[in-house]
User: Which sequence fits this backbone?
DNA sequence: TAGATTGTTAATCGATTAACAATC
DNA sequence: TAGATTGTTAATCGATTAACAATC
């Protein structure tokens, strides 16, 4: 999944969408496909570091990340030159650089809109240690949920968004509402001042230029699986 | 998000991954990128049909799906020729064909491994009406959860997998466990006879040829968002 | 030096899209 | 016929990967 300005989509992407050109002209342009692999490399490098590894070859990293070694070298070359020929990449340096690029050493305040199962799952998921994000508020349209807590985060009224966003300096809005209200939620997040939106509602959203948008569609992945199942397996009971 | 054999998705692509060539040589080969867009088109066509639309142009469908019209026509051409020049596509026929390809009129039995927040969210999400899937069992390693229910689905002991899978003719395993145990869960799902795996654990899994694997990495999408945030916004409080 | 491994080039592959003839 | 819209071609664009010179 990935998309672009107000329209496209993942395509991702299984892939997600991006609104407006997010890449500063001051930085080298890193291809979207490479950016999407950085978190996977990062995870592998962190694990190797904890295991005491000092240097890692592109071959080994490729194995851990499940990709081609040439792709690893190409991807890492976008980050600059941290490899040593004949030796490999310095694990500490690699981890530091990738963590920096991914904003792992920052702490973006997020709001989750929709205190349902998925919202709760994400709130718990993200409250785990250092990922570069912290969920500072959850909002919901259901008054019976207001004042309750998910983990340590309070559930607020959705009308509180215009106050919450500036007050907590919230940068990212995460939409886990039903699809019918997702566009209006996105509009309100944008007016409230959020700069990026991660949308879990299965609907195509439109946001103004300058607002980053990525989409995750849980049902889509299953439907793609189902497509291939239908081509390789016997039919199950018909519905 | 999306990928290929033995690796992961997002890993592999931010797109999800597929293990082994899943496309029967008897059917026309539909590109992965096209398959990933079919659910989006399908959703739009279903909505238009409910609104009473009889025919739809590639232009309109493109607008609804957030993609280029030429891409829509190209994608639909893989399904066969259902369009009428000068008129558009017959909505009923389009919906039927896409629904068929996506297995929407079938009912694949699924098992969710991991009765945590995410597992519960998915169980509820998928128990919604006709999506071509039904969650027939949830398993968890925690004995205190055994016998409880999420929605109407019972939580079983994870050791029950070898019995549950054949008994319910389960085709798809959904992994929502912590990453540390995900590979062993995948191995056990495969031995139990599952043909496809949808993995939500942030780890690269390996499965035998012939087993379909797709990965969804919730944190990855946020990390990609964070990457672009870091390039366009001011830094938040450092962590 | 000999062996290992990077960084980069260039070939290849696949996906996107503009354009337009076909045709309803 | 005139207008609309598909289906398909071909150009373009971008991503992947094999190969290998550079070099530790």
Assistant:
């Amino acid at each position: 999944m990935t998309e672009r300005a107000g329209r496209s989509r993942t395509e991702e992407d299984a892939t997600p969408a991006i609104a407006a050109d997010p890449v500063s002209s001051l930085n080298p342009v890193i291809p979207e496909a490479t950016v999407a692999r950085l978190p996977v490399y990062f995870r592998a490098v962190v694990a190797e570091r904890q295991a005491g590894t000092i240097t890692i070859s592109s071959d080994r990293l490729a194995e851990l990340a499940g990709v081609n070694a040439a792709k690893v070298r190409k991807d890492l070359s976008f980050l600059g030159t941290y490899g040593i020929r004949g030796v490999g990449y310095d694990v500490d340096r690699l981890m530091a650089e990738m963590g920096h690029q991914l904003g792992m050493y920052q702490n973006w305040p997020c709001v989750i809109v929709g205190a349902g199962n998925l919202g709760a799952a994400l709130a718990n998921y993200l409250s785990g240690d250092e990922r570069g994000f912290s969920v500072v508020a959850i909002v919901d349209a259901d008054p019976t949920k207001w004042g309750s807590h998910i983990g340590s985060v309070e559930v607020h009224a959705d009308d509180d968004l215009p106050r919450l966003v500036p007050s907590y300096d919230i940068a990212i809005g995460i939409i886990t509402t039903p699809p019918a209200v997702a566009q209006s939620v996105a509009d309100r997040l944008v007016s409230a001042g959020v700069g990026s939106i991660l949308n879990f509602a299965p609907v195509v959203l439109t946001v103004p230029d300058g607002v980053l948008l990525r989409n995750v569609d849980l049902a889509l992945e299953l439907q793609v699986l189902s497509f291939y199942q239908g081509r390789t397996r016997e039919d199950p009971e018909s519905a």
